[in-house]
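User: Before I run my own analysis I want an independent prediction to cross-check against. Here's the chain; please return only the structure tokens and, at the end, one sentence I can use as a sanity check.
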Amino acid sequence: MFISIIGTPLSGKTTLFKALAGAKVNGNGNGHPSARIEVPDERVDALAKLFNPRKTTYSRLDVTDTVAIREGELKNETLDAKSLLQIRQSDAVLLVLRHFDNGHAADPAGDYRRIQEEFILADMVQTEGRLERLRKQNALKPQPALQQEQALLERCLAHLESGAPLATLELSCEDDKKIRGFLYLSRKPMMIVVNCAEEKIAEAGSIAAQLRGKLPGHIPVVAACGQLEAELAAMAPGEQGAFMAEYGIAESLRGRIIRLAYETLGLISFLTVGEDECRAWPIRRGMSAQEAAGTIHTDLARTFIRAETVSYEDFMRLGGFAGCKKAGVWRLEGKGYIVQDGDILSIRAGS
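Assistant: Structure tokens:
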């Protein structure tokens, strides 16, 4: 899963990126630093102890820093094309809002509105361009599919013109699939980090709660001091505990964002085990066994026959495969089975 970190100038988003990335920073081809973050998973740790595999692989989140978004850049299409495409291709965005004094009064709620307005305006420009072409095509030679697309986009445009992001527009699953290719910014899942000053760290919880009360919908909000979190991420693991205790940090920002991303994107993990590798695979909640097989390899989805399945809890409680089969909890599931978090899967596929 791919998350872009966005924010206004001098919001501290690059500092927050360093807090998430630690030392694992590289380029992403667009000139922006990116990092792949491993998702800690005690289940993978326990299974690795049992199987002693040659390789242990955790779920991962890819995060990328971006250029600062200035007022009017998205509407006027002056943000560089690579940066804009990167944000559009993200599975979610992490918005950093300033809550510290840098010579200008902090206004996190106002900064949120300005970013959201930029997203809405950019989506309007994109929709109007496509609608102009559709109207011409339908006037010359009406086609049912194009007429349906025109009606759907006119509905989207009316919603945007009301000042509301597309994330708040209720669409059927079918219509949602139809507009996914537009990579709309205002329909993208959003998480917010309020970047507060060091002296405000004790008030982080109330700062996040106050902002949450000013925002529409259910956008998740956390607050942290980016500078302290970046220092924490750069430390050796043995030094982090004392630093966190000194500043009253109960959990690192990295851990909080990982959990928040899973909740926001509706992710779960299924597991595969063996002497070669023990691995966690992130998938969207509600995916079928056949779809989950496709995350391992597309050929497994195409030639899928059955999935051998057992829950992690049963596997550990009964002492492995033999105990699970004896207890009757090791089962065969078809392609329509909905995978549950912590399922251990072994895919049977044809040639």
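Sanity check: Residues 213 and 340 are 33 Å apart (CA to CA).
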